[in-house]
Request: fold
Amino acid sequence: MAKKAPQRKSLKDQEEVLKAGQLLALGEMAAGIAHEINTPLNVILSQIDLLQVENEFPSECKSALDKIASTVESISSVIKGLKTLAKVDTNHAPETIQLNDFIEETTKSYSLTMQHLGIRLIVEVPDGDFPFVCHPWQLGQVILNLVNNAMDAVRKLETKWIKIELGREPGFYVIRVTDSGDGIPQQHLHKIMTPFYTTKKTGTGLGLSLSTAIVRELAGTLTVDTESAHTRFEVKLPVTSHA
Amino acid sequence: MLENKNILVVEDSEDLIQIWKRLFPKAGLNARFVKTGQDALALVAEGFRPDLLMTDYYLPDTTGTELIEKLRASNENLKALVVTGNSNSNFKDMLPENTDYLVKPVRFQTLHEKLLEILSP
Reply:
């Protein structure tokens, strides 16, 4: 089993990450547009279907309705095309990583910064087999976003710690990033995954929405655990048979 | 053939619900319509027993996957169709087993054919 840690050694690699990040932003936007527009398009198509079922139209009206329907389908195709264009493809095949090793390697890069900020970093990953197929830098970006958010959140707290855990549930690997904060205020909860929404003075508001897009592309989910006493984000990734 | 089959439709677009409420009976489909996962669970708790759940994926209070799993816990033979406005190449992996899906926008004829296919014994 190949074990690969994220590698960002050369400038070319960094440019590739940057470019892929931009593509992801475009993909996220296209996915958002698709989600918001396809249902209204469905309303138009269904309304046409209803008109045609309930009424007898002269042929010119019928052909006009057919034209409206085909135009709606063209609009939908444009959006699908944009998503395909923005689909992350680094020209590399995905790799099989071991999630436990990957998390340990990724979090190592934060340990000095955290030490400097007085934040206690707790990494709890079990030994064993946790194979997962992905582009490692993509998953690295998700973990980076979650840990960066946690660091910003606890920076000014009296008790500062961040805990990263890996576990299993039936059919899923679960990565939990918990910090010593008291949770996300209710009024922000439904907005934090929205592109460009931020509570930080210097934030872009793209971190969580991009992370959500990446995790969804990996057939997983990224959620806030509202039951937790502390602020906790949970990434679930499917255990796939081909891993 | 399908008059005795119950379909539970969960869709948060009021416009779409209003249109489907008129189209489904015309196609001989017996359906109840709700807008959230909670409403769907409440309807089932009241005694409505669907043969098929047709649901949007991203609902205001849950996902299609969670809703299917919750309803199948008490009705393991429940058939399911997810009609989503957004899908990706791995979308099938996000769904429980034995779950079909269509991507919006979808013509009613396509939807009708898919429902017939799923409900056919």
Notes: The CA atoms of residues 53 and 80 of chain B lie 5 Å apart. The longest helix of chain B spans residues 14-26.
